[in-house]
Amino acid sequence: GAVVSQHPSRVICKSGTSVKIECRSLDFQATTMFWYRQFPKQSLMLMATSNEGSKATYEQGVEKDKFLINHASLTLSTLTVTSAHPEDSSFYICSAPGTSGSDAGELFFGEGSRLTVL
Amino acid sequence: DAKTTQPPSMDCAEGRAANLPCNHSTISGNEYVYWYRQIHSQGPQYIIHGLKNNETNEMASLIITEDRKSSTLILPHATLRDTAVYYCIVRPRRTGNQFYFGTGTSLTVIP
């Protein structure tokens, strides 16, 4: 199957700073990527759909100015948590759909990025 | 907006079959049933998917009822490494469609 990679896997930052998380599709092109957030002992919550070359689509209740998404190429999407606060501490996971053959329709996930805001 | 219902937790003895149920009574004709699992602090891992026929791969089997309103994921010989949260998701098999996760089933395999 296809491979999606996230970086960094862990990040600790001070309150008020911004943090960027990268999501790359390593062996396939992804015109669409999805960003999820997961709090401890909870399920994955879809935050937004990242679209290559156009604006991201945010789920209801997700602040687009707080969580900036850029999908500048067919293999890279970035999520920037702006002016992070302790309540933004979470596990952020990106994913991209397979596009060909048996991968089509399947969703491939990155390893996740754990953000801790002090 | 999750459209599935799963039991919150289950236990299974190591070496035995783990049968994880999922209800999806409002599934549409073009929606597939997908199963993923998430081991602690990792990204979800694809297991299997199906439309209406039963499916089997090297990881698991998927049994879908004839009316497609429920399904069961079967891990034939559970190991300790199968301890994870298992998510059942229904969605059309189109690239751009989102996956919405429900609460999943936390499976604990007991030695």
Summary of the model, kept short:
Chain A is mainly beta and 118 residues long.
Describe the secondary structure blueprint for this structure:
The complex is a heterodimer of chains A (118) and B (111).
Chain A (H helix, E strand, L loop, with lengths): L3 E4 L2 E4 L5 E7 L6 E7 L6 E7 L5 E2 L8 E7 L2 E6 L8 E8 L9 E3 L3 E5 L1
Parallel strand pairs in A: 2-11
Antiparallel strand pairs in A: 1-3, 3-8, 4-5, 4-9, 5-6, 7-8, 9-10, 9-11
Chain B lengths: L8 E5 L4 E6 L7 E8 L6 E6 L4 E2 L4 E4 L5 E6 L8 E9 L12 E6 L1
Parallel strand pairs in B: 1-9
Antiparallel strand pairs in B: 2-7, 3-4, 3-8, 5-6, 6-7, 8-9
Write up what this structure looks like:
With 118 residues, chain A is mainly beta. Helix content of chain A is 0%, strand content 51%. Chain A contains no helices and 11 strands. In chain A, the strands form 2 sheets. In chain A, strands 2, 4, 5, 6, 9, 10 and 11 form a 7-stranded mixed sheet that branches. In chain A, strands 1-3-8-7 form a 4-stranded antiparallel sheet, with no helix packed on it. Chain A is globular. Chain B is mainly beta and 111 residues long. Chain B is built from no helices and 9 strands. Chain B has strands spanning 9-13, 18-23, 31-38, 45-50, 55-56, 61-64, 70-75, 84-92, 105-110. In chain B, strands 1-9-8-3-4 form a 5-stranded mixed sheet, with no helix packed on it. A 4-stranded antiparallel sheet of chain B has the order 2-7-6-5, with no helix packed on it. Chain B is globular and about 40 Å long. Chain A binds chain B through residues 1, 4, 6, 32, 34, 36, 43-46, 49, 91, 93, 95, 97-99, 104-112, 114, and chain B through 32, 34, 36, 38, 41-46, 49, 87, 92-104.
